[in-house]
Amino acid sequence: MLGRGIGPIRFGMYPEETMKVLGDPNTTDLRHPKKGVGAVIHHYEQHGLDLTFDEEDEHRLAYIDVTGGSFILMNALSLGMSWEDCLAATKDLGLGLPHEERCVSWDLLCYHGHSLMCWFHDKTLSKISFGHYWSRDGQPLWPEG
């Protein structure tokens, strides 16, 4: 669910908590460790998930990337959808108009107010990225329970 997580995985969890649910990640990456603010990414290939723990957020789960598997977010979004079907689904969900980016190798629908990004390769939804919500003053809003 947007702003909350996926299944038993909730935004705001610490790496140890997610590993109790999913086990050890296949691989772990560091992002931007030289800039003073970094992130640790746990890749769970068998689940089709990448979990990002931001240093700024006290290494709590800040983002989930769905890269495989049969996940259906909000009973509407799933990998393999076309650009047009994704636009129709997000409209039906009341997410508003997205910011659109089109590049040579990928396209993006971004719903900033919902912390949702839909990534397309070859006109097919190939990754869904979503995160926790933010307060008006820029503080993370962690879901309860």
Summarize the structure.
With 145 residues, the chain is mainly beta. The chain has one domain (5-141): protein yfey like fold.
Account of the 3D structure:
The chain is mainly beta and 145 residues long. It contains two helices and twelve strands. The strands form three sheets. Strands 3-4-5-6-10-9-8-7 form an eight-stranded antiparallel sheet, with helices on one face. The longest helix has 10 residues.
Largest sheet: 8 strands, antiparallel
The largest beta-sheet arranges its strands as 3-4-5-6-10-9-8-7
- The proportion of residues in beta strands is 35-45%
What is the string of SSEs from the N terminus onward?
Answer: EEHEEEEHEEEEEE
Number of domains: 1
The number of E-state strands comes to: 12
**Poorly predicted ranges (pLDDT <50, ≥5 residues)?**
none
Number of helices: 2
User: What is the fold named in CATH at topology level?
Assistant: protein yfey like fold
Structural class: mainly beta
Q: What general outline do the C-alpha atoms trace?
A: globular
Helical content stands at 10-25%
CATH class: Mainly Beta
Query: In CATH terms, what is the architecture?
Result: Sandwich
Q: Mean of residue pLDDT?
A: 91
Distance between the termini: 13 Å
Radius of gyration: 15 Å
Structure keywords:
protein yfey like fold, eight-stranded antiparallel β-sheet, two-stranded antiparallel ribbon, 2 helices
What's the arrangement of secondary structure elements?
Elements lengths: L4 E2 L2 E2 L4 H8 L4 E5 L7 E6 L4 E6 L5 E7 L16 H10 L6 E4 L4 E5 L4 E6 L2 E8 L1 E2 L5 E2 L4
Antiparallel strand pairs: 1-2, 3-4, 4-5, 5-6, 6-10, 7-8, 8-9, 9-10, 11-12
